[in-house]
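so my prof wants the structure for this chain in the tokens format not the other one, which i didnt know existed until like an hour ago. anyway here's the sequence
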Amino acid sequence: MNEIIKLLDAHPGISLEEMATMLGIPACEVAKSIDTLRSDKIYMGEKAVINWDKLEDGNHVCAFIDVQVQPKLGMGFDEVARKMSQIPAVECCYLMSGGYDISIKMKGKSFQEIALFVARNLSAIEGVLSTTTHFVLKRYKDDGILMDSSEKDDRGNISL
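here's what i got, hopefully its the right format
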């Protein structure tokens, strides 16, 4: 089962037949294992990595929002994090160590749209003490994929 998980992680979108060949087991056995991983909530699906910067409309802004939260007695950060996670615009929501408590990733059409979302939605949640928004200006690597591998990096070359 661990080998199937490793293949799914390293090669999103790999076919059952390719996995079966690589693992030396029948495709029906691979399919059964994947079904078990799904039902056990271990394998949650695959996601495409899109280079939004290459699209003509250019209306894709990504932001990471750090949130400080007043933990609730008996619930800790879970109740606030659950509320944030249920908002459709929130792509990722993590409990963090360090200077803030929760980190959120979201996308919008503009900086203003994200700023308004933070002001109207996140800041309004009971227990939220403060937010800090970081806008992504350029993606170099996302989910392990180089976003523009055509650029040559000459920083290590020394010309005499």
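also thought this was worth mentioning. The chain is about 30% helix and 20% strand.
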